[in-house]
Specification:
2 copies of one chain form a homodimer. The first copy, chain A, has helices at 16-28, 40-58, 72-86, 102-113, 131-137, 160-169, 189-192, 241-279, 306-315, 335-339, 344-348, 361-380, 383-388, and strands at 4-5, 66-69, 93-97, 117-121, 142-146, 173-177, 196-200, 211-215, 283-285, 296-301, 318-319, 350-354. By secondary structure, chain A is α/β, with parallel strands linked by helices. Chain A folds into 2 domains: 4-10 and 259-388, Aspartate Aminotransferase, domain 1, CATH 3.90.1150; 16-254, Aspartate Aminotransferase, domain 2. In chain A, strand 5, helix 6 and strand 6 (173-177) form a beta-alpha-beta unit. In chain A, helix 3 runs parallel beside helix 4 (102-113). The longest helix of chain A has 39 residues, at 241-279. The radius of gyration of chain A is 22 Å and the shape is globular. The mean pLDDT of chain A is 94. At the A-B interface, helix 1, helix 3, helix 4 and helix 8 of A face helix 1, helix 3, helix 4 and helix 9 of B.
Chain lengths: 392, 392
């Protein structure tokens, strides 16, 4: 049985062209980019090529503003902790939202231990942050605002450009976690007006464990990894060159393919979403209906457990997710869903589909064919469902 | 002209078996190890296999004590900053030496900004730390001692087991940066008695940008990268699986090959060192003659610049280093050499050779053949040399 992989959020398969670039690098380059000799030079050239590819994808003014990291988590940790240390004399207050990725929220938890203060904003039922609430949270002590570009569990796209204008007005650094968005939708640091932006290769057909932090020139930030002078003195440590080459190739590919892939994937998403709500009663669609990622569908199915649904779908060769992979191992309901006001029962019944470049109409139709029966089977085992749907 | 690569310290070439393991993983596995499904499971299995391979190399009691990082720099940052935060209520004093890697020294610089105090110990002319000096530096506020296992520039091996006994006596956590040693000489966390140990794959024929921090069970340490629950809650972020698989394969290979490779490389090192001091007058050998890495030769050649010597050797197809690659881009003399009491002039005349598994006797003999003439050519251009060696 061919697998229908609809969990691109957890990790995308390597695109064949990315794989080829990585193997080619692995076969031919091994030097340390910091070594100024004929072994180090090809490594340095490969590193800077990748930097240019990532800079082009996000429209950075200067490739030097791109700092490679070990992924989105490091990029988020670096942005928050780096600005916190860089501006510790100016103030110790940061503003964020309740539905950020755990790498943002838990970095802020650590900063609290070091005597920083954090305001974490509520979102509305669609997961939207209100820019006016951000402005209201600002104090003379505020040194950083961090609001994600797109939520990785419900797909809501936040009004980043509006929040950036507020941050600029108050002369406060602004970071956006764009991990779930970059490579999927157009991400332009100039249009967004952010100082800092996190991205990760494994969201757009590059390898896992490699990402980047965009740092706009002039942003006051301290390294997270102290040591040597790599990454224009922003991030110490000999580079994961094979991964970085993969990130660069994936970035170039994403920029090239987006005009074609975006409308195609939107059509498939609509087909999936409409199919589900038409065929399965009592399903709640999560996230903002308008401002949302084009490849992500999050639904909460009443009366059943997302885990059970996920396992039965896997029996049919369909791989989906119940929540962000980063929280796997945790049995608590998603903080994102709870943050949008969803009850625990519904949150537990959530399923997240993320489509990819090789998802086909036939894949979607297969999901729509098998899923209603699976849901009904599970509901038939639910005492609450039976009670509430008892005839007569 | 075939290249004679004697700069294994900057980066080792991938061993063919490591390369094969990485390509095989790259071709067949892409899932997120945190995803509990048939795509994530092979990834999780590959991750845990690598963890076992690294645990075996360093004799960790439990593979869970191995936490994968983005390299030696992250491992060092994690050890120092993680314990500093974990034990902030207990005290804010740390002890180290003046010749540690920059990732240790600069992490401590950052901790100073956050109101921690650091005692940095002098070393002797061989680069040795005196265990008695460590004990003397301990205060009731001391929470961590960090002394490297082997110095990456001069090769001196520190009396780690002795220092560990002192740390244990005073119930203070002890970290050793074993990046330059692991995979080269036997490294056994039980015999060393350390709580924390850093290692990096690119020192033993694995890829760059991946390493590990050994964390003995019970060591009070906070994550450096906050976020998800990966790495047994020690280090968040989706794993660089391809790199980790390479690290695991390299670790297994190193453990297997060491009994053969160690005596072979020692013989080659002796041949190089004896050859140099016999054929080139006025050369100072750096590091401890007895307690030293078996693959590293550091010499300071009077009257000339290491950079010039390095470039002329490269013209002959010989790749060496003048100092730690991490400091490339810096024109200052090595803090390690200055730390051993070497004057700036001699420090600038330093050359570091690091031999590898495929270094041959013929390679060493070629170096010994061409190097004396190159040194003489450079010295003949030196006004000071000419003045001091004027005949009559």
């Amino acid at each position: 049985m061919a697998l229908i992989y609809l969990d691109h959020l957890s990790a995308t398969p390597l695109h064949p062209m990315v794989k080829e670039a990585m193997i080619q690098n692995l076969e031919t380059v091994f030097g340390n980019p910091s070594s100024d000799n004929q072994v180090g030079q090809p490594a340095a050239a490969a590193l800077e090529k990748a930097r240019g590819q990532v800079a082009a994808l996000i429209n950075a003014a200067d490739p030097k503003e791109v700092v490679f990291t070990s992924g989105g988590t490091e990029a988020n940790n670096h942005a928050l902790k780096g600005v916190a240390i860089g501006l510790r004399e100016k103030g110790r207050h940061l503003v964020t939202s309740n539905i950020e990725h755990k790498s943002v929220l838990n970095s802020l938890r650590t900063l609290r231990l070091l005597d920083y203060r954090v305001t974490s904003l509520d979102v509305d039922q669609y997961g939207l942050v209100d820019p006016a609430a951000v402005e209201k949270a600002i104090t003379p002590e505020t040194i950083l605002i961090s609001i994600m570009l797109a939520n990785n569990e419900i797909g809501t796209i936040e009004p980043i450009a509006d929040i950036a204008k507020i941050a600029q007005k108050h002369k406060i650094a602004f970071h956006t976690d764009a991990v779930a968005a970059t490579g999927i939708i157009p991400v332009d640091v100039q249009k967004l007006g952010v100082n800092l932006l996190s991205l990760a290769a494994n969201q757009f057909y590059g390898p896992s464990g490699v990402g980047a932090l965009y740092i706009r020139k002039g942003t006051p930030i301290w390294p997270l990894l102290d040591g040597g002078l790599q990454e224009n003195k922003r991030r110490a440590g000999t580079e994961n060159l094979i991964g970085i080459v993969g990130l660069g190739a994936a970035a170039e590919l994403a920029a090239q393919e987006m005009p074609k892939s975006l409308p195609r994937i939107k059509t498939l998403k609509d087909r999936l979403l409409q199919g589900i709500v038409t065929r399965i009663p009592e399903v709640k669609v999560n996230g903002d209906p308008e401002h949302c990622l084009p490849h992500l569908v999050s639904i909460s199915v009443t009366y059943i457990e997302g885990e059970s649904l996920m396992m039965l779908l896997e029996d049919e060769g369909i791989i989906v997710n119940t929540r962000s992979a980063c929280a796997s191992g945790s049995l608590r309901a998603s903080h994102v869903l709870i943050g949008t006001g969803l009850g625990h029962a519904l949150a537990q019944g959530t399923l997240v589909f993320t489509l990819g470049w090789d998802t086909t109409e036939a894949d979607i139709d297969h999901v729509l064919e098998v899923m209603p029966n699976i849901v009904q089977t599970l509901r038939d085992m639910s005492p609450i469902y039976k009670k509430e749907h008892a005839v007569g």
